[in-house]
Specification:
Radius of gyration: 21 Å
Distance between the termini: 26 Å
CATH topology of the largest domain: Aspartate Aminotransferase, domain 2
Largest sheet: 7 strands, mixed
Strand content: 5-15%
Number of helices: 10
Number of domains: 2
Order of helices and strands: HHEHEHEEEEEEEHHHHEEHEH
Strand order of the largest sheet: 1-9-8-7-4-2-3
CATH superfamily of the largest domain: Type I PLP-dependent aspartate aminotransferase-like (Major domain)
CATH class of the largest domain: Alpha Beta
Shape: globular
């Protein structure tokens, strides 16, 4: 029997059990209103309170002040790939610079080219996206509009060890798959954004946190819905927002605050989970190939293969018999992938590691 507790999918990913229970009840009827969350108006006082609490919870968890605007948008990171250059590739600056470190950052780099001139500051394609650069060592034009990178590559299982760059230009990060997985030095960023379905909640909402001085460089004449200033001015309620997704995001933020105890505690849990899984894989020696080079291994996504598609498929089938789901690798590289998002428990990772070791002994 499949289990929410054993969901290792790359996205949509696992949700905390308490959040699933609260959401199930809210679909029937919210305790505050007696109406299903699926039928609540985005103009109701109840929803304005949800927006306010979700913003306040994110500010508290991340330690960000009013110099940043917090917005809840739609369209996922894919829309941000276009909106960011539309808004921030200023005519009086040099082209923005992009780090291309994997599948998703390559998508961002390509989309930016549809909107503006841009420079590729670093590209890992030649080495199969198995390693990452040191951001502070990149040769960035000091007059560039901004530097964009993806903090964690979900497909290849790569993660930047440090959340910072010494570049003098505004730093913009797509944090979709490791947002809220641990504390960050938020004041180093001009913009951070993350779509839900990893650590935030169900798909449908994207959080964009933007330093207010960056908003001043947005050109006039953009379509209103593609102008970040519109969403800031309307408190994320310019058009009908994804009420349900934002409600569940708020429940997740409460869980992180009240049950987990904040992002330092979350980071410690995630580090233990990743170490347990990598230890199991490393103990299998050459029988397993982990995609990412050791210094850049992700705590969120572990991509690997047994070197034979039949063995990979056999393990997915065996895991399914034990209730484990979501272990298939991304279509672009195949193999296997284990996603260790916040809601994946340490017990779940222990069970998976034990099954991997048992599989190795019996099949390899």
């Amino acid at each position: 029997m499949k289990s929410n507790a054993l969901n290792f999918s790359g996205g949509p990913g696992a949700l905390p059990e308490i959040v699933i229970e609260q959401t199930r009840n809210a679909i029937d009827a919210l305790p505050e209103t007696g109406i299903s969350v699926l039928g609540m108006s985005h103009r109701s006082d109840w929803f304005y309170a949800v927006l306010a609490e979700a913003e306040n919870n994110l500010r508290a968890l991340l330690g960000i002040g009013q110099e940043y605007a917090v917005t809840f948008l739609q369209g996922g990171s894919s829309l941000q790939f276009a909106m960011i250059p539309m808004n921030f590739a200023a005519e009086d600056s040099s082209p923005p610079e992009y780090v291309t470190s994997g599948y998703w950052s390559a998508r961002a780099t390509a989309e930016a080219a549809r909107v503006t001139s841009r420079t590729i500051a670093w590209d890992g394609k030649a080495t199969g996206y198995r390693q990452l650069p040191e951001l502070h060592e990149l040769d960035i034009d000091p007059s560039a509009a901004y530097l964009h990178y993806v903090s964690n590559e979900t497909v290849e299982g790569l993660q930047f060890a440090a959340w910072k760059s010494d570049a003098a230009v505004p730093l913009i990060a797509d944090m979709s798959s490791d947002f809220l997985s641990g504390p960050i030095e938020a004041d180093r960023f001009a913009m951070m954004y993350a779509h839900a379905q990893k650590n935030l909640g169900p798909a449908g909402v994207t959080v964009a946190i933007i330093r207010r001085d960056l908003l001043e460089r947005i050109p006039d004449g953009l379509p209103a819905i593609l102008d970040f200033r519109t969403h800031v001015a309307h408190g994320s309620n310019f058009n009908t927002p994804p009420v349900f997704a934002i409600y569940v995001l708020n429940l997740v933020s409460r869980w992180l605050r009240d049950s987990v105890g904040g992002l330092d505690a979350m980071q410690a849990i995630n580090a233990r989970k990743a170490q347990r899984l990598y230890n199991a894989l490393d103990s299998m020696g050459d029988a397993v190939a982990i995609h990412a080079a050791r210094p850049w291994r992700s705590q969120m996504n572990v991509a690997f293969t047994f070197g034979d598609a039949r063995l990979d498929q056999a393990f997915v089938a065996l895991a399914g018999e034990h209730g484990m789901v979501g272990l298939e690798g991304h279509r672009s590289i195949g193999g296997l992938r284990v996603s260790l998002y916040n809601a994946v428990t340490e017990n779940a990772v222990d069970s998976l590691a034990e099954l991997l070791l048992s599989f190795g002994k019996s099949r390899l």
